[in-house]
Amino acid sequence: MDNMGLKANKKYMPHLIAALRSRFELSEGGQIHYLLGMHITRDREKRTISFSQSAYINCILTRYRFDEIRTVTTPMDLNVALSKEQCATLERQQEEMKNKPYREALGALMYAPVGTRPDITYTVSTLAKFPQNPGPTHWTALKHVFAYLRGTQHYTLTLGGISSLILTGYCNSDGTSNPDRHPIAAYVFTIGGAISWSSKRQDIVCLSTTKAKYIALTHAAKEAIWLHHLLNKVFPKWFKLPITVYSDNQGAIALSKDDRFHTRTKHIDIRFHFVWQYVEDGTLSITYLPTDRMLADALTKALAGPQLTKLAGAIGLQTYKTQANCAFLVSMPSRPTRRYQQSTQSSRNASSPPPYNRRPRHRNNQTSLREDRPLIQRLTLLNRLPNPTRESVRRSTETTGLAHISISPVKVMCRIAYTALVIFTITSLIGMHIFVVTQFVALMNRFLQDANLRHNEDYGWSTTTNNRSNNNNAGGWGDFSAGWGTTNDSN
């Protein structure tokens, strides 16, 4: 059975379906919502159409047991450069990689960048260089891609939403950054969103960045010509010439507009001068664009998270915005919740459920727990209780008519920790304020006591002086002096 989507004028659609039914067994499915592993959503008000592979990505995450992996923000580690030197050469590494489904997981992963995920195209094409003898580093890089997909599986590729339909191309190359000097040529074509993209390693060796960018321009020009022919067949006279193709290298742009002979470019193969003819007859227009705005840059090298997110949004990758999709994402199970599941074929006593931090052990003669469990689970408190307790709780629930209580232990512990932190913070602030006020009051009391003491001492001296004045103490000093003088006279 083959699935196929049809697009035609309402007037001719019945005739097309009748012609197909006359030769094939045909069953109509109505308006298209799901095709080839992609969910399709249309917004007629905004005139957009969105494609999502979230179900497919979730499926391969579960199949290769990456559904509990910790998420990351980039598809490739910026500090790791994959090469042939990292292949498994030691016997220990080869034995270790025999148990890793590298080729199977990579093959399943390749459908995502082909369908709706241009942001992982470069990473997947790089990993595809080592299918024969992958090493532990390559396996770690593959797990990194799955970790990125787990955190971004809700991305949708949205097309349309613009007033005028304009075919625009972006091409780039990593230049001579590779050790073998084989450049990676990439391009992206958009009509309100990415409709065609490619990231491919070239077979030739480039001696300069200009040559690498010029070769990338040639590949982008071939794709632009084909897209223009195809779009004119489907939508006659909608897409006008010239087709704008952006590049971030001024030398490559100059070569595409100048067919004169140059000593520095005489070694370039004549087939790469394909772009000359179409620039001359007005089919293509090669224009400069800075590197930070180059959409094809995400398909030539590993980028940091903020830059990748910016370019992915410009390409057309968006997140779910409807309430139903948000509810679907919120209801997805987390890692601790899955660990509470018990295998129905286990010989463990039902009255002693497995501990929180222990993973269930699978035997070869038993069905794997990951294959039996649904993709979306909601564990209630009733299901986590032992069997005897479950029955009593179920009977009491049926008697009282109360709903089952859904409790997540992680959320409970987080709320308890958060509440304790808030109480501790408030108590600390109150204690600090009390301490500061107490110290301030003590300091003020000490200051007032010192001030009163100085005032009393000054007042006491003046009183003594007055008393001495009243008691002729000043004269006493004089009499004393006179006494000294009298004594001297008598002597």
From TrEMBL:
Keywords: Membrane, Transmembrane, Transmembrane helix. Residues 337-370, 464-491 are annotated as: Disordered. It comes from the Eukaryota. Signal peptide: none annotated. Residues 464-473 have a biased composition (Low complexity). InterPro entries: DNA/RNA_pol_sf. The chain crosses the membrane at residues 416-444. The keyword Transmembrane applies. The keyword Glycoprotein does not apply. SUPFAM superfamilies: DNA/RNA polymerases. PANTHER family: GAG-POL-RELATED RETROTRANSPOSON, PEPTIDE SYNTHASE GLIP-LIKE, PUTATIVE (AFU_ORTHOLOGUE AFUA_3G12920)-RELATED. This is Reverse transcriptase Ty1/copia-type domain-containing protein. It comes from Hermanssonia centrifuga. The lineage of its organism: Eukaryota, Fungi, Dikarya, Basidiomycota, Agaricomycotina.
